[in-house]
Write a structure and sequence with these properties.
With about 375 residues, this protein is α/β, with parallel strands linked by helices. Helices cover about 35% and strands about 15% of the residues. A hairpin with a 7-residue loop joins strand 1 and strand 2. Helix 1 crosses helix 10 and helix 2 runs parallel beside helix 10.
């Protein structure tokens, strides 16, 4: 599936002795993650974080590694990335670099909320399940108010009930709603769904934050302009992910309302997110954003996930739990099959107890990778 031609991919050869431990969160719908601390194994479908740096980002990084240039973001690469972002989103916005997604989300929410204010989010949101309390820490005490919703999406009715409970000064004051695009369950908010949530927020003088760790996959799947699911439908701040799309590190925090970003540069510095050699964060982004490589990578990952899901369903008769709309495939798999696949070296996470596992596809997954996995599924799935 990789049309770049031979010699441009990343070869990962290693051995794996099996995976026996899991880490479980309490509760009947707990999310768990398989221990991936052991070296080696077949990581193709474990996460889109396991892929290498895409060739275009790598080439841009090498090109930037010459002579001396101004530091702390005063370089030409940082300026060009910011300008390119404004071109892609077709608006004048403020753009900031951070090293990872947790910092992006936590600091963006800290910018939006006082310590006595709260953030409404889905119970499966990354800011709740996978960021070690960073949003609460960097906001100095803001509370995450958890609600449910089908397919990983915010349910406005539940949000309304939650807000009604926070009706006086003994409770945190709701200030922001955070949505994830694409969601942690691999589904995608359509533009009208984002607009409905932003309208709900605006009517209550709240702000809308978008965790876009896989924003590229959403844009690729919807085949829409980036503005159509962000500022044009009321998103105030976007955390635009690059790591899962082919970078080594580096996310963007984009404020579509510039008044919201006042002194955010100080917050970044205090949070340890101001890179001195900023060009090495910016240059790979430039490689990704030039000639729409970011969209190609996302389209490739989405197609791979669709192909994997179709083959699992038709060839192995394995149940696909959620609609495959981006680059994630959630399957219902019995424990023996999962254990046997782990024994053959395949890494992947159990995501929801008792039997729902997540398979992720990245920009680098190939037809052969999918065929290799399917061959082992066929051999083991009795």
């Amino acid at each position: 599936m990789d049309s770049r031609g031979p010699g441009l991919g990343f070869v990962r050869q290693s051995l794996f002795r099996g995976c026996t431990r899991t880490h479980l969160l309490p509760g009947p719908n707990a999310i768990s993650k398989i221990d991936m601390s052991q070296a080696g194994g077949r990581h193709k479908f474990a996460s889109d974080n396991t892929a290498g740096i895409c060739p275009e980002a790598w080439a841009a990084l090498e090109k930037a590694n010459t002579s001396e240039v101004p530091s702390y973001g005063e370089d030409q690469w940082t300026e060009r990335v910011c300008d390119r972002i404004r071109e892609i989103f077709e608006t004048d916005c403020d753009v900031y670099f951070v090293f990872n997604g947790t910092a992006a989300n936590a600091l963006a929410l800290a910018q939006l909320c006082h310590s006595f204010e709260s953030v409404i989010c889905h119970e499966h949101s990354h800011i709740h399940t996978d960021e070690c309390g960073a949003p609460e820490f960097f906001t100095n005490g803001s509370k995450l108010l958890l609600i449910d919703g089908a397919n990983g999406k915010i349910d406005i009715g539940q949000a309304e009930v939650m807000i009604a409970r926070q009706n006086e000064l003994h409770s945190h004051k709701p200030r922001a709603i955070s949505i994830t695009q694409s969601t942690e369950l691999g589904t995608i908010y359509a533009p009208e769904e984002v607009a409905a949530i932003s309208g709900f927020a605006r009517d209550r003088e709240m702000l809308l934050h978008m965790d876009g760790a896989r924003f590229a996959n959403a844009v690729a799947a919807l085949n829409c302009a980036s503005k159509a699911i962000t500022w044009e439908v009321g998103v105030d701040v976007l955390c635009f992910g690059g790591t899962k799309n082919g970078l080594a590190a580096g996310e963007l925090v984009i404020f579509f309302k510039k008044e919201l970003s006042r002194e955010f540069d100080y917050r970044l510095k205090q949070g340890g997110q101001l890179g001195s050699k900023m060009r090495f964060l910016a240059a790979p982004w430039l490689g990704l954003l030039t000639n729409d490589v970011w969209l190609w990578n996302a389209q490739h990952a989405n197609r791979a996930a669709s192909q994997l899901a179709n083959r699992l369903k038709t060839e192995a008769k394995i149940d696909i739990v959620f609609s495959v709309e981006a680059n994630a495939v959630f399957v219902r798999m019995n424990e023996k099959l999962a254990r046997d696949l782990h024994a053959r070296g395949w890494h992947f996470y159990k995501f929801i107890e008792p039997d729902v596992y997540r398979l992720m596809c990245s920009w680098s997954v190939t037809d052969q990778d999918i065929s290799d996995f399917m061959a082992d599924v066929a051999a083991l799935n009795h």
